[in-house]
Amino acid sequence: MTKLAVIYHSGYGHTARVAQFVAEGAGRHAEVALYTAEEASARLDELAAYDAIVFGAPTYMGSVSAGFKAFMDASAPVWFKQGWKDKVAAGFTVSNSPSGDKLGTLQQLSVFAAQHSMIWVSTGELPAGVTGSEINRYGSFLGLMTRSDNAPAEQTPDAADLESARRFGERVAIAADQLRRGRH
Ligand SMILES: Cc1cc2nc3c(=O)[nH]c(=O)nc-3n(C[C@H](O)[C@H](O)[C@H](O)COP(=O)(O)O)c2cc1C
Predict the structure, then answer these.
(1) What is the rounded average pLDDT for all residues in the chain?
(2) Is residue 88 pLDDT above 90, yes or no?
(3) Which of 83, 110, 155, 179 gives the lowest tally of CB atoms within 10 Å of its CB?
(4) Who lines ligand 1 at CB under 6 A?
(5) Atom 1, ligand 1: which residue's CA is nearest?
(6) What share of residues in the chain are helix, strand, coil (percent, to 5)?
(7) pLDDT tens by residue, 124-160
(8) Using only C-alpha atoms, what is the Rg of the chain?
(9) Is residue 135 within 8 Å of residue 87, measured between CB atoms?
(10) Cα first-last separation, the chain
(11) For atom 16 of ligand 1, which residue has the closest CA?
(12) Which residue lies with its CA nearest to atom 25 of ligand 1?
């Protein structure tokens, strides 16, 4: 079965919540494991077993949180061997403001994936303003954007953002599943 890991950092619980919904969606087509950035840094060898890795970081000061960046830097030994080459990758973020400079975080995550020669999967959803639905409310194509809206993690991101996360996870898992079957 296709295997997908979600690796995230969360200072206050919002990104952890989104990670759970990404994992739930992905779980429809893959065997899924959740790792905090700290756990993933300590268990880098395990990640070789996954077909896809989804990266999640809160946006702090317009970029990934220091906790996630520590994992990025810890992955350098894998980079030297290009150990994640041709695995599927995708990214998501949470921030307080509607923009909040979330794009900066997703750009960092996609460059990180490219440094590892991974295959990046976009959101694949038209913006909510075009479809009239509430999916992909922030109109992001590069990766999933969600919003904490200055409320605790028990309340936000809201249902529409969490459903966007579920659909995003499902899309990444389908891409990874198709690629794995094609290779076989
Ligand atoms: C140090 C710090 C910097 C932040 N910078 C931003 C920012 O640049 N843009 C924004 O919209 N929100 C910013 N926020 C708010 C967080 O993105 C928001 O609270 C998010 O939900 C945190 O995710 P977490 O609960 O997973 O840590 C910042 C929060 C902290 C603690």
Answers:
(1) 98
(2) yes
(3) 155
(4) 10-15, 58-62, 94-97, 100-101, 148, 153
(5) 60
(6) 45, 20, 35
(7) 999 999 999 999 999 999 999 999 999 999 999 999 9
(8) 15
(9) no
(10) 12
(11) 95
(12) 12
pTM of the model: 0.98
Tell me: the pLDDT tens digits for 160-179?
999 999 999 999 999 999 99
Which are the contacts of 82, defined by CB distance < 8 A and separation ≥ 6? 116, 117
- Beta strand pairing call for 144-147 and 52-60: unpaired
18 CA distance to ligand 1 centroid (A)? Answer: 14
CATH 3.40.1130.10 fits 3-183, yes or no: no
d(CA 160, CA 174) in angstroms, rounded, equals: 21
- What the block records as the tokens of 131 is 């479809």
Q: Do you know the residue count of the chain?
A: 184
Q: What mean pLDDT comes out for the span 84-101?
A: 98
Q: Which of 12, 55, 59 to mutate to test the pocket of ligand 1 (most atoms within 8 A of CB)?
A: 59
Angle ∠(31,121,79) on CA atoms, nearest 5: 80
Q: Where are the beta strands (DSSP E) in 15-81?
A: 31-36, 52-60, 63-64
Is residue 58 reached through a cis peptide bond, with omega within 30 degrees of 0 on the bond before it? no
